[in-house]
Amino acid sequence: MWIKPAIVVLLVLLLISLGSGFFFLMKDQGRTRRTLHSLGIRVTLAAALVALIAYGFYSGQLRSKAPWDAALEGSHAAQQDAGSKEK
Predict the structure, then answer these.
(1) Is 38 buried (19+), middle (13-18) or exposed (0-12) by CB count in 10 A?
(2) Are 35 and 28 in contact (CB under 8 A)?
(3) Which of 45, 43, 64, 44 is nearest to 7 (CA)?
(4) Element (H, E) at 76
(5) pLDDT tens digits, residue range 13-72?
(6) Separation of alpha carbons 56 and 8, rounded Å
(7) What is the pLDDT of residue 75?
(8) Are 38 and 24 in contact (CB under 8 A)?
(9) Residue 4: pLDDT above 70?
(10) pTM value?
(11) Is pLDDT of 78 > 70?
(12) What distance lies between CA 32 and its chain's CA centroid?
């Protein structure tokens, strides 16, 4: 249950890092390395976000609610039922 709030927190942190990178780019005009550090933080946060989402799907805590996924799950369940009846 902690995955969804963690995803929101990471997204907010990504937006803050994006804004700070833009601010540093405009203020420093490329004279300092603060923009580069902001980019590194943003890449790290993005990697953590992707890993967290992958873990959520792997553990079953996150699911897709798209209509075409429900149809696929229904046909997959029907195939499993048919396979278990044959045995």
Answers:
(1) buried
(2) yes
(3) 45
(4) helix 67-86
(5) 999 999 999 998 899 887 888 888 989 999 999 999 999 999 999 998 988 887 777 766
(6) 13
(7) 60
(8) yes
(9) yes
(10) 0.72
(11) no
(12) 31
**46 token code pair:** 């993005």
Q: Which residue has the tokens 């890449």?
A: 43
Closest to 7 measured CA to CA, from 73, 51, 42, 41 = 51
Both structure tokens of 17: 């890092």
Instruction: State both tokens at 21.
Output: 């990178």
* Residue 87, pLDDT above cutoff 60: no
* Tokens linked to 26: 């405009």
Question: Can you read off the two tokens belonging to residue 11?
Answer: 């997204």
Amino acid at 82: A
Query: Which SS3 state, helix, strand or coil, does residue 46 take?
Result: helix
| Under 8 Å between Cβ of 10 and 49 | yes
